[in-house]
Amino acid sequence: MKLSIFGPRGCGKTTYLTCLYAQGGKVGSFAISAKDEPTRNYLAERWHQLFTGTELAPTALGLIPLHLVFSANRQAYDIELQDFAGALVMQDRGQDEVKKKLKDALRKSFQESSGLMIFIEAGEPDFQSQFDRRVELDSLMEVLHEQNNRELITRPIAIVITKWDKIISSTGKSDQAKEVEEFLKQNYENLYALVQEHSQNLQIFASSAFGFEMKTPDGQLDYKKIKPFNLEKPFTWIGSTIDKLSYSKCELFEKDNPKNFSACIQEYTKFCKNVNAGVYYEKARHRIRELNQALWKRRTKRTAILCLTMFLILILADFLYEKNEYQNLLLALDVENSKSETLPVIQKTHSYLASFRIFANGLKWKEEINKKLLDFQKNNEEKAFSELEELYKYRNNAKDVNSMEARLKKYETFLQAYPASLKRSSITTWKQEEESALYLLQAEIAFQELKSSFPKNIDDATIWEQWIQRGQNFVIKYSTSDNVQAINKLLEEGQTKLAKLSSDDQYRKFLLELIKIKDTIEYIRYCQNYLMFNPNVSFRSKIEEKIKEREDSIFENVQQKAKSAKDFLNQVNPYKEYIQTKEFQIHQGQAKKELAQIEENLYESMAKKNLAENINVQNIKAIAEYAKQYQENAYYKTKTRYVSQWLEWYEEIKKGKEFDINIKSASLNEDSSLFKGVFKPDTYVILSYGSEKVLTNPIADNWHPVYNKNCRISWHLESSESLSLELWCTDWRDNSYSWSSPDTFLPKYLNQDIEIEGNRVHLRCPSARWPELPLREKD
User: Fold this and answer.
1) 689 Cβ contact list (under 8 Å, min separation 6)
2) I need a surface site. Which of 278, 322, 493, 715 has the fewest CB within 10 A?
3) Average pLDDT, the chain
4) Which residues are bridge partners to 759 per DSSP?
5) Is the pLDDT of residue 149 over 60?
6) Taking residues 431-444, what's their average pLDDT?
7) Where are the domains of the chain?
8) CATH number for the domain running over 656-768
9) Superfamily of domain 3-250
């Protein structure tokens, strides 16, 4: 905070500042101290002169910067001001160039100041002195008006009447605001009117640098009894007024920018950094919290609206995509109008049904597509077979890898789409031929690449190691190829060459021994034993890399075998062999994880077929086959408890089982045409299964009849009979509605409500429930 002091020579500016500093730094809640060494020395020197009875000489011509820190009411202010010779503001018609430059510098400091203190000496000035003060003050007002664009001066101006002890003799009447103002009006009427007319924040203070009752009996000053009076109040008032004006600027900025919360927060934060404490500091902090909360609410609202909009757009886009996909599939599956090839359509449809679709599941599009697919497959089996027959007939015209893989995919699609087809054996044969041909072609291509890239005349060991690794991978992957023997010869030559290139005798001997080993397990065991007995060899990392390369190749082959296997046994056996081979250590964790996943996948397939919505005789038989494979071939067998219980139930229903069925009750629909014109119906139910027929007792005048009829029915898995129910109404005429089960799996319908034309008949049979295959382990 910059303050300017204004006053003519002899008005007591320097004495005022010196005595204020000399009060010991603290008066009541006010304290002041020097901020730097020059200020401290300047004021201390003048205090020493006063204390020793030496009257202060007028300040030398010039500007003396002073840096002070004052605090009031728990609030601190840094002050920059300048003491100067009073002659610089007094009227002087004959001023020289130096004095003119000093006056210009002084006026500039007035323009840059945050507050102003105008010093006026108490007493009874003559008319000429009053006129001079008026001209000097008029000049100051002109300087301040230039900065404020001729508007009212807002910065605080304190008029300090010094040497107040000349007016009154004691402090009893010294701080009377009316007396001070009356004095100013009587002695400086024009000056007071001028400042009051141009200033918005004006305050008058009476002060005395020496205080009262400090004279000796002979009328001389006793400097040891100096007790300054009212020196701190102008500073305190200017500081609080500047804070108030700064806070008002923040409020005005907020009023002009009511929606720019961030900018308003920055303004209030800047104010808090400058103020640090006080009433307006607390108000600013409170307003910052309110604005931050408002800003957070607005951002949250905008973010929520944006997220909701994006979500709705994504939902709409997904809906349009799924609808387009659904319509395209309907068009492709249209038996009469479809112009697409049969197998690609089936393959694409299977992919669609297996994938997750939000709208397709909810709007039952998948059910419609599935029905269309069944019709399409039924009507296009011959066409699909003809397409494959054509492909097989002209297979020799396209014997590249891509064409073979495409044909294999189509064969697999046909076998998946038509599991009961009479053409299945032909397709299987063609598929096996294609797989064999593809295997031989890939082996031949790989052999030619290896043969052409054999680095015969190259002495770079790295290139040889890379080629040998590729050759070893070929021998593992294409072990039945006729070219394996040729590759082994090249491998021996390459390994010999590599051994010769090695600069380390011991490593060369190791390699020479290693190339003699053909068996993979023996190869890895030899490397492991070598490292165990020679743990500090310099080429240890090379041996470990060879172990890793060989084991990586073995594990990749395990994965390929399991992936290409069509049954559970051939999927798990490669992993079981790998896990049980102690020499294989690198991929043990991954092998166990993948083996567990294969077992989990088989169990999940059983569990899904076992769900109420999927259960039928065909799926029961499939589950039984899977369950036996699981029991016989699984390695971990984590779900054995559930699988064994299920198999026990399966063996029981294969032999046949009797079910105690309770025809419990019914919920009748008043809007059903069966009860047209009936106020309260008389009803009974007939249950039929094969030759068995059970009638309930008639229940009269009841929309919720309770029959509670028990019966016993024998059923076995191979039964071809369907369950039938008839609901009879006998009020006006005998009339009935009937229902038959869609399939022959009787237990599925014995613990549910059967709907007959809007009416529901409740059947109960606890013994008909089949064992669960939970997808997750129960707690």
Assistant:
1) 713, 715, 721, 722, 723, 724, 746
2) 493
3) 81
4) 756
5) no
6) 88
7) 3-250, 333-443, 453-554, 565-654, 656-768
8) 2.60.40.150
9) P-loop containing nucleotide triphosphate hydrolases (3.40.50.300)
